Amino acid sequence: MPTRIEALWTAKDVAIYLQVSLSWVRHATAEGQVPHHRIGHNVRYEPEAIRAWIVSQRAQVARVIPARPRALPERR
User: Fold this and answer.
1) Are 18 and 25 in contact (CB under 8 A)?
2) Can you give the residue range of the structural domain that contains 24?
């Protein structure tokens, strides 16, 4: 039985999925931060690759140790 292939996403689809602006998606794509494919002059995104990228971003954030909050100076 053939597996169902999910349609590729546009930048607008990615922006909606990530709940970010379209300009952020375009900038992150141009910087090579977001996995994408160029098809002629068009840019498309594999939904599964975007989902995996999100998981990897969460893992990177989880590895960052938060700084200890500094004590505020006492008021006199």
Assistant:
1) yes
2) 11-58
